[in-house]
Design a protein that fits this description.
158 residues; mainly beta; Quinone Oxidoreductase, Chain A, domain 1; five-stranded antiparallel sheet; two-stranded antiparallel ribbon; 6% helix
């Protein structure tokens, strides 16, 4: 399936504080890696942490400068890499907030957080490794289901 070459995203501005947010134009890859999934984001949740990151001293851990905001979303699979087996076009999915901790057994993994130190979800499209996505119930609207993905752990029934 053909998909757009560019999309819009919401990024934090660079310091000084307080930071602002701005709409930017981002570029999608020409081709997906074998285990990557391209999703179209339909709904996002704005959380306190997204606002706290804009104020100096209000968020307790470092964040990516000029990072894309957001950690929760409901998305639709629009393209898959050649080796993806877990998802198909049209599936409803959400990314895990911390792709470094997938099973709970990662003792030495450095935690990562969507919208914090890695690009977040307030954007039109995103590419994720298939292991970083969970399936969402398709009978709920995009707005209803964006909250379902927040507490879902990979490996659990979804």
């Amino acid at each position: 399936m053909a998909y757009p070459k560019t999309y819009r995203a919401v990024r934090r501005t660079a310091p000084p504080y307080p930071l602002q947010v701005e709409i930017t134009t981002e570029t999608l890859p020409d081709a997906l890696a074998p285990n990557d999934v391209l999703v179209r984001i339909h709904a996002v949740s704005l959380n306190y942490r997204d606002v706290a990151m804009l104020r100096e001293g209000k968020y307790p851990i470092p964040v990516e400068e000029r990072g894309i905001e957001g950690s929760d979303c409901a998305a639709e699979v629009v393209a898959v890499g050649a080796l993806v087996r877990k998802f198909s076009l049209g599936d409803h999915v959400a990314p895990t907030i911390n792709p470094a901790l997938l099973t709970g057994d990662e003792r030495d993994a450095v935690p990562k957080a969507l919208g914090g130190d890695i690009p977040g979800t307030i954007r039109e499209y995103a590419v994720y490794h298939e292991e970083h996505l969970v399936r969402l119930p398709e009978h709920l609207s995009w707005e209803e289901v964006r909250f379902v993905g927040v507490g879902v752990c990979p490996g659990s029934p979804s």
